[in-house]
Write a structure and sequence with these properties.
Residues 84-182 form the Fe2OG dioxygenase domain. It holds the Pfam family 2OG-FeII_Oxy_3. InterPro entries: HIF_prolyl_hydroxylases, Oxoglu/Fe-dep_dioxygenase_dom, Pro_4_hyd_alph, Pro_4_hyd_alph_FE2OG_OXY. This is 2OG-Fe(II) oxygenase. By secondary structure, the chain is an alpha+beta fold. The protein has a single domain, classed as q2cbj1_9rhob like domain (Jelly Rolls), CATH 2.60.120.620. The chain has 2 helices and 10 strands. The protein has helices spanning 8-23, 59-79; strands at 28-29, 47-51, 85-93, 99-102, 112-119, 132-136, 139-147, 154-158, 164-166, 173-181. The chain has a 6-stranded antiparallel sheet with strand order 1-2-3-10-5-8, with helices on one face. The chain has a 4-stranded antiparallel sheet with strand order 4-9-6-7, with no helix packed on it. Strand 6 (132-136) and strand 7 form a beta hairpin. Helix 1 packs across helix 2 (59-79). It is globular and about 40 Å long. The chain binds 2-oxoglutaric acid and fe (ii) ion. The site of 2-oxoglutaric acid has 8 residues, from strand 9 and strand 10. Fe (ii) ion binds next to loops.
């Protein structure tokens, strides 16, 4: 976890861009499951998402992609994990929405290696809910830590190992979520 790995102005720009896309109707209700078995289930997952594209030309998204490429290089040098690209989307959880406990790597594919979440909530306050709840990898009923979705905070964790959930929030909760992958870029 880091609160200042990304420039504050970049996080603010990404929040504005997420909001602009939301107001333009570019978000869709998120699905669960791998590509071939996708389904909508708002009891499991209540967010709406807007995927980012590698060729996106918006300045903050380009800057974020550049940062992600550098970070991917650092992770590969440090851990030899063969990351090749980052798939990512903006996410917005409306009031009352959350995401029940899950692991990000799909059973059918091990391509998702490292999960990334950047929180984009400048006004988040204690009591607003929406914390990321991390559980013990070997004992998933044991809660380990709750992370408040504060502006600019960035989480990286293993997509294959770490059970986690988003607790219901009481006001809109914005983030940029992604996965560093080891397969061929889409
Ligand atoms: O927003 C978060 O804190 C986590 C989101 C998440 O777990 C996911 O999209 O897979
Ligand atoms: Fe997740």
């Amino acid at each position: 976890m880091s609160d200042d790995i990304l420039p504050a102005a970049l996080a603010q720009g990404l929040r504005q861009e997420a909001q602009r896309r939301w107001e333009s109707g570019l978000f869709r209700t998120a699905t669960v499951g791998p590509t071939l078995a996708k389904r909508q289930d708002t009891d499991i997952r209540g967010d709406s998402i807007c995927w980012l594209q590698a060729h996106d030309v918006q300045a903050d998204i380009t800057a974020f992609h550049d940062w992600a490429v550098r970070t991917q290089g650092l992770l590969n040098r440090e851990f030899f994990i063969g990351l090749r690209w980052l798939e990512c989307h903006f996410a917005r959880y409306g009031s009352g929405a959350g995401y029940t406990r899950h692991v990000d790597q799909h059973v059918a594919s091990s391509a998702r290696k490292i999960s990334l979440v950047l929180y984009l909530n400048p006004d988040w306050q204690q009591g607003d809910g929406g914390e990321l709840c991390i559980y013990h990898p070997e004992s998933p009923d044991t809660e380990q830590v709750r992370i408040a979705p504060r502006m600019g905070r960035l989480m990286l964790f293993r997509s294959d190992l770490i059970p986690h959930a988003v607790l219901p929030c009481s006001s809109a909760r914005w983030s940029l979520t992604g996965w560093f992958r080891s397969d061929e870029p889409a």
